[in-house]
Amino acid sequence: MLINRLKNEMLLFDGAMGTMLEGAYKSGELPEILNITNPDLITRIHKQYVAAGSDIITANTFGANALKLKATGYSADEIIAAAIKNAKAAGAPLVALDIGPLGQLLKPAGTLGFENAVSLFAEQILAGTKHGASLILIETMSDLYEIKAAVIAAKECSTLPVIASLTFDKNLHTFMGCDARTAVTFLNAIGVDAIGVNCCQNPFDIAPIIDVFTQFSRPPVLVMPNAGLPDASGGYSVLPKQFADALTGYYKKGVSLFGGCCGTTPEYIAQLKKSLKGKKPIARQTERITAVTSGNRTAVIDGKITVIGERINPTGKPKLKEAIKKNDIGFIIGEAVAQQDAGADILDVNCGLPDIDEAAAIARVTAEIQSVVNLPLQIDSVNPKAIESGVRIYNGKPLINSVSGEKKSMASIFPIAKKYGAAVIGLTLDENGIPDCAEQRFLIAKRIVKTAASYGIPKEEILIDSLVLTASAQQEQVFETIKTIRLVKERLGVNTVLGVSNVSFGLPNRAYLNSIFLTAAMSAGLSSAIVNPLSEEISSAIKAFRVLSGSDKGAADYIAAFSAVSESKASTSEAVHKDLTALISSGQREASKTAIRDLLTTAEPLVIMDTYLIPALDFAGKQYETGKIYLPQLIQAAETAKGCFDVINKVIKTEAGTCKGKIILATVKGDVHDIGKNIVKVLLQSYGYEIIDLGKDVDGDFVASEAAKNRARLVGLSALMTTTIPAMRQTIEKIRISAPQCKVMVGGAVLNEEYAKLVGADYYAPDAMAGVKIAEAVLGKKIGE
Question: Mean pLDDT over residues 580-588, rounded?
Answer without folding.
Answer: 87
